[in-house]
Amino acid sequence: MDLQAFTREIAQDIPLSQHMGFNFTNFSPGDDGGRCLRTELPLGPNLNDKHTAFGGSIATLATLSGWSLVTLICRELGRPAQVVVYRSSQEYTAPIQADFYSLARLDQAAWQEFRQQLLTQGRAKAKINVEIFAEGSNTPAATYEGYYLATYAN
Q1: Among candidates 42, 24, 37, 117, which has minimal Cα distance to 77?
Q2: C-alpha to C-alpha distance for 115 and 124, rounded to whole angstroms
Q3: SS3 labels along the chain
């Protein structure tokens, strides 16, 4: 998967991502055989008045990371799909004072179920968990749970 090309595609299709500095850096099988996507953001264009990461930027990172993970999984399966988020929740646990990144994950069991539904029914739902980290920290500064629907495009 060419993540640089994907980053450019998303920047063109979703201009906000370009202004924020989105960079997709790793798409791979997760530790458990599921799928994981790492997405990075610089702090500079995402600052708030307190000189920490703006909550809206963190929310956008989480939502777009989940959407991108589902989109990349569909492409990995060989067919593009229309992907939408239909429900989400997020918790902020610490301020972010450095460049930051997300890890969006779909575990192996959920990936297998998603794959089976998409291939047999042409549509599937997935719950994506995303953790947001400040660079250099091992503790999430925010967590997100998003529910996405993928439908094969015509």
Answers
A1: 117
A2: 8
A3: CCHHHHHHHHHHHCHHHHHHCCEEEEEEECCCCCEEEEEEECCHHHECCCCCECHHHHHHHHHHHHHHHHHHHHHHCCCCEEEEEEEEEEEECCCCCCCEEEEEEECHHHHHHHHHHHHHHCEEEEEEEEEEEECCCCCCCEEEEEEEEEEECC
CATH number, domain of 19, equals 3.10.129.10
- To the question of pTM greater than 0.85 for the whole model, the response is yes
Q: Where in the sequence is the domain holding 142, given as residue range(s)?
A: 3-152
Query: For 88-117, how does the pLDDT look when each residue is reduced to its tens digit (9 = 90+)?
Result: 999 999 999 999 999 999 998 998 999 999
Are the CB atoms for 39 and 17 separated by under 8 Å?
no
Instruction: Give the pair of three-digit tokens for residue 20.
Output: 């924020």
